[in-house]
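User: Here's a structure from my thesis project, written as C-alpha cells. My advisor, Dr. K., wants to see whether a designed sequence matches the one we expressed. Can you design one independently, without my sequence as a hint?
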C-alpha cells in the first residue's frame, strides 16, 4: 500500500481535476454519490482493494471489473477510472475518492464527523450529533461516518477535523482515574 504522503501528493491533483470536470458539467453530487458507494465497497472488500492494486492483474480485467461495479455511472466518471488504470494510478483510487469527497464537503460547507459508538446510531442520535457539530463548526451540513466499537462501553466519541469530543463511558472512567491519581 502506498504511503500516505505519496498517496496524497498523487491523489490531490487527480481529485481536483475530477472536481473541475464535475463542476463544469454540474455533476459534483452525482460523482459524490458514486464515490461514496465505491468508497464503502472498498472499505467492505479488502479483496477488491487487493485486486485493484495487484500489478499482475491485467488492465483489461481491472477495467471489466470496475465497469461491472460502477454499472451505469456517468461516462465522465467511468472514463476517469479507466484513465487511472491506463496511467497505473488505480492503486491510488481510495485516496483519490477520499480527496474528492473532501473537496465536495468544502464546496458545500459540510464537515465530516467521525463518530464511534457501541452500537448503530438511531435517527434522533444522528440529529443531535449533527446539531452539536453544526453549532461547533458553523457548517451548513454534517456528514456522519460511524464506527462501532464495543470497547468504549457506552456513549460516543466524535472527531471533527482535529477536535475530539470524548463522551464515552471509557473516556469518563479514564478521566476519573486520572483525577484520583492527583
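Assistant: Designed independently from the structure alone:
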Amino acid at each position: 500500500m502506498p504511503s500516505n504522503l505519496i498517496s496524497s501528493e498523487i491523489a490531490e491533483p487527480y481529485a481536483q481535476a475530477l472536481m473541475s470536470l464535475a463542476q463544469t458539467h454540474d455533476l459534483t453530487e452525482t460523482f459524490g454519490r458514486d464515490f461514496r458507494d465505491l468508497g464503502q465497497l472498498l472499505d467492505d472488500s479488502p479483496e477488491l482493494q487487493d485486486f485493484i492494486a495487484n500489478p499482475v492483474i491485467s488492465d483489461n480485467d481491472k477495467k471489466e471489473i470496475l465497469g461491472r461495479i460502477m454499472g451505469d455511472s456517468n461516462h465522465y466518471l467511468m472514463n476517469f477510472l479507466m484513465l487511472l488504470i491506463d496511467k497505473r494510478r488505480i492503486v491510488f483510487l481510495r485516496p483519490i475518492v477520499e480527496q474528492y469527497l473532501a473537496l465536495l464537503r468544502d464546496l458545500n460547507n459540510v464537515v465530516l464527523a467521525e463518530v464511534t459508538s457501541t452500537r448503530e446510531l438511531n435517527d434522533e442520535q444522528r440529529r443531535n450529533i449533527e446539531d452539536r457539530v453544526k453549532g461547533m463548526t458553523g457548517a451548513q451540513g454534517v456528514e456522519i461516518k460511524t464506527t462501532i466499537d464495543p470497547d468504549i462501553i457506552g456513549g460516543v466519541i466524535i472527531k471533527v477535523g482535529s477536535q475530539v469530543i470524548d463522551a464515552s463511558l471509557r473516556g469518563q472512567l479514564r478521566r476519573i482515574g486520572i483525577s484520583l491519581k492527583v
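When you compare it with your expressed construct, this may help: The chain has two domains: 4-106, 109-181.
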